[in-house]
Design a protein that fits this description.
With 388 residues, the chain is of the alpha/beta class. 39% of the residues lie in helices and 14% in strands. The protein has 13 helices and nine strands. The N terminus is likely disordered.
Length: 388
Amino acid sequence: MKRRGGYLLSVGLERRRVLAAGLATLATGVGWSGPSRCDGAETEPLRKLAAEKGLIYGTTISAAQITGDHEFVDLVLRQAGLVVAENDMKWSIMNRGTRGDDDYGPADTVAAFALENNLALRGHNLLWHHRTPSWYFKLNARSELERAIVGHIQAMVGRYRGMVHSWDVVNEPIEPKDGRSDGLRNGVFLEKLGPDYLDLAFQTARETDPAARLVVNDYDLEFDTPEQETRRTTLLNLLERMQRSGTPVDVVGIETHLSCAGGPPFSASRLRRFLAELAGLGLTIQITELDVTDENAPADPVVRDSLVADAYSRFLDAALDEAAVKMVVTWGLSDRHSWIVRQETHEAKWRSDGVPSRPLPFDPDLKPKPACEAIAHAFANAPGRAPG
């Protein structure tokens, strides 16, 4: 999950008013006619519509939600076939103090919830420069730096061995703007260990749980901009290098934080080409953090919901054409629990009018929105594929 902006949009208040007026006119033709596939107890849940086409549909959950929001849990159990801990498995969240002082309680709660309810479980994540304990930055000896990474991965992957469908082993490893010829991010692991940290992490994860699918997860890969085209090329080059060196990567995770209005342009053909290139490497693909910001959309919730639904629809209709896409995970299920609503995103993604964002398939009252119907429609009309 990226907490920094990929495409930063700065518009004045007058421009926002003009944009909103234009979008309100545009949205009159957007939406879903007829009864919603998401509305009513008798309708097919998203997980079932996905499974019928060989897809896994999932969402985030936290230990606090599991123990404290039973209505939301019921919705997750009905709609999702997979869960991923939004934050509870991140290294610096589990370890806020000294080395070795890890709190597995919340992560155990999420894992037990998945096991007890026959849900698949994604592991998010093992290494992320943005969620690394403070003590790691103070290590200097290479042996200690490597031992800390190996110990953490062995502890996490070993604890949940046989339970986790796929692990985000390294989260967000690329950043072309950092200026390196290989496009890697100048984060703590690269700075201290060099590019070899990637192989160390993936090899350790493979040895610890040979059955888990190992994922490189990254963002800003879906829009039709020069910057994102560079990121796509950089990621493809990285994956090819990893394969040549024998690094055991199985899956590419594409975060996919969309914008419904005034954001970067989207090209279905360009996305299809990129996904085909990933599939051509023999890798499977997961859409790992799908949601839609509405920072530039009109305040009217009907208009906003239509625009958000349209963004889901256009993306998924293109992405699901690729048979190597095996999983779709929305980064949340209800607007009640969303990092966008909590304003944990970059400030450019916040609404300036104080109206809460509406980024997810269900509203804060757990009622289905047009976004739910858009996702259901995309699943129902997707080509079938071998289950992932």
